[in-house]
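Regression test case RT-17, inverse folding.

Input:
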């Protein structure tokens, strides 16, 4: 048996091959499903959480109406992502725990195609107009691979709607890696996350730094990123072709 920091006791035989950080995240939502939180009943909290995410889009000059008729992928969607109340959109939610959430929360009415997968490894047969990555990237197992997947998932003119907690105060220009078992294996600051995005072919179109008043944590970075003409790997291929062309001209 295992007791998480959220006080939910779970039988390890029922968690299968889930990673310790995934068990902790699952316990957080199981605790809410049983007890509610901040005066909300479980159902009220899920609805409030969805609407809070939608409301927060105003800070990046975007809205739910922008997603109509679009292909929208939300990675790390959990049981209360932005997608459930979208109208007229192709909505795809990706989360490695979604099958576990379905056992606890009624997601059958959601007009969403849910995929049980980590960000680094999920596959879809279409590219997205918008990818939503809301407080997710510091939870992944491989932040570099996950960022490349975000790039690959977007259409050439697509947008990444992004939010992350700024937990690193060291001034590092690189993402700080912690314990892989932690719920937040990676810590970033504005410089390190911006460098990671740029390296993988994404550039800021909108960016705002805010205080997380709800949880009294370090600041939150929110923004919209566009897809550069090519990422670092593509640039290498282009340079290689140029060198070959120049050598043929000699």
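Golden output:
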């Amino acid at each position: 048996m295992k007791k998480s920091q959220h006080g939910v006791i779970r039988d390890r035989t029922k968690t299968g091959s889930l990673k310790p950080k995934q068990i902790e995240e699952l316990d957080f939502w199981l605790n809410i499903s049983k007890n509610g939180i901040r005066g909300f009943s479980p159902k009220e909290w899920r609805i409030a959480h969805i609407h809070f995410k939608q409301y927060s889009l105003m800070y990046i000059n975007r809205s739910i109406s922008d997603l109509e008729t679009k292909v929208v992928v939300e990675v790390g969607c959990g049981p209360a992502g932005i997608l459930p109340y979208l109208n007229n959109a192709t909505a795809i939610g990706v989360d490695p725990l979604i099958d576990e959430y379905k056992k606890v929360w009624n997601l059958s009415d959601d007009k969403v195609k849910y995929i049980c997968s980590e960000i680094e490894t999920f596959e879809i047969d279409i590219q997205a107009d918008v990818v939503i990555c809301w407080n997710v990237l510091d939870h992944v197992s491989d932040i570099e691979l996950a960022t490349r997947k975000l790039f690959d998932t977007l259409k050439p003119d697509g947008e990444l709607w992004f939010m992350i907690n700024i937990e690193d105060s060291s001034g590092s220009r690189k993402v700080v890696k912690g314990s892989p078992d932690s719920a937040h294996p990676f810590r970033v600051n504005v410089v390190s996350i911006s460098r990671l995005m740029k390296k993988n072919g994404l550039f800021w179109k909108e960016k705002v730094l805010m205080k997380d008043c709800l949880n009294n944590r370090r600041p939150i970075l929110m923004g919209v990123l566009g897809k550069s003409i090519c990422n670092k790997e593509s640039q290498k291929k282009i340079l290689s072709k140029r060198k070959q062309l120049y050598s043929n001209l000699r």
